[in-house]
Structures are given as C-alpha cells and as structure tokens.
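Feature request disguised as a bug report, sorry. It would help if multi-protein outputs had a clear separator. Right now it looks like this:
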Amino acid sequence: MDTRNGLVTFGLFVLLFAFTFVFSLVALSEDNVAYGILALVGFLVCIGASLFNSVVAAQEGAVFAVWFRSYAILVGILFVWFLTRVGTAFGWW
C-alpha cells in the first residue's frame, strides 16, 4: 500500500466513522432502532477493515500500519461506550 492509497483509505475510514458516530448519537437520543443497527454495523466495519488494512500495511512495511491500529483502538473505545449506552437504555444493566 503506497502512501497515496493509504491516505485515501484512512480518509474514507474517518468519513465512515463520522457517519457511524452520528448514527449512534441519533439512535441513543431518539430511540431509533434502525440507526442503532446502522451504527453497530458501522463500528464493526470500521474496526474490522482498519485491522485488516493494518495487517496488510505492516506486511508491506508501510508507516500507515500504526495509523490504522490507532484508529481501530479509538473506534473500539467509542464502540464500547456505545454498547454501554445501549445496554443502559434497554435496561440490561
């Protein structure tokens, strides 16, 4: 993965995360299940695709491997936040 492709891919991941985060906020504030499902799928795609690109970039020796791993950690932290808010809203804990 060269620098340009890595930067474009990372930019698309940031854009996907922005939409995912907005969907999660709307799902929590308006009790909209469809947006909650979209946010759940968005978080999983962000984490999975970022880890996949991190492994591919690390095998090629690209610097973007660190960026993709950092992105996956950040999205993972916010995903846990989303899950705890959903669990509280549903009364699971």
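(second protein starts here, but nothing in the output says so)
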Amino acid sequence: MNSTNDHNTQRSQSGAPLPRIDPHLAAVWGAFLHEGLMLNSRNTERTIKLLDLWGNGCIELIQSVCEYIPILWHQVQPHWDRPQGFPGVFEYEVVSILGEQIAAYMLTHDGALPNDRQFQMMASELVTQFFTRGEHLAKKDVMKPSPASGKQSLWSWLRPWIGGGR
C-alpha cells in the first residue's frame, strides 16, 4: 500500500488535480470502513481471527485501512456533485461493504491487506453499481430529489453538526 502522502497529488482523468477530501468526510468514511471490517459480522470469532492474522493491533489496522480513503475519493469524484443526488446512502452501501470486502480478503490472504490496485478494483465495482443504479432510477423518473432528500448521503446529514455549516 502506498503511504498517505502518495495520494495527495491525485489527478482526474483530464489531468486536473482532484479536490482534497474534507477531513470530516474522511473521518466518517473511516468509521464506516471500520464498521464493515470489524463490526458487521455477527461472528466475533471472525474479528478475533482477523486481528490475529493481521498481527499488528486494531488501531494500526484501522489506520492502514484508512489509507484507502483517497483512492475511494478518486473513484467517487466524478459523481460527487451530481444534480440528481445519491440513489441511496453511500456510506452504508459502498464504504461499509468495502470494509467487509477488505476483511474477507485478509481472511483469505493470511492477514495481508489488498494492494492499492486490488482495492481500486473493489471500490470501482461498488461505486459504479451505486451510481449506475441512480442513473437508472433518474431515467425512470422514480427518484425526484427534493431539498430534504437531494443528496442522500450520511455526510450531507452530518455536515451541519460537525462543523460544515453551522
């Protein structure tokens, strides 16, 4: 995995620098990665096995997994400010699921984390499914954004409470 500094100079497909992820959003995504990684399974033995295979401590695992956040941000960037809003709750339907996929990978690879390319493939598939579903709904005119539901992201709901608008 690349160090966090390697992600600071990410560029869009056109070569323009990507906007940096808001630190509050990164914290929320880190929490949802943790949820998927450690808390989503009802099998507590799975969590213990995951940490045993990892071998470096829970905090270190979460810190390492959070290094994937800039890769995810890069995947989401083309869709982030879409006028029709989000087709669901991104944090539950993508970020938490990515945490589960990382755990599954680690359990089948002796505690090793996926490399950046492998994570990018995981993220790309989920992000594409999430936003494609939204495009399909928008075409059918099923999803009509309103001021209350335009961007159905947990981040949108939390932003005023954690310093982004109050």
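Even a blank line would do. Unrelated, but nice: The radius of gyration is 17 Å.
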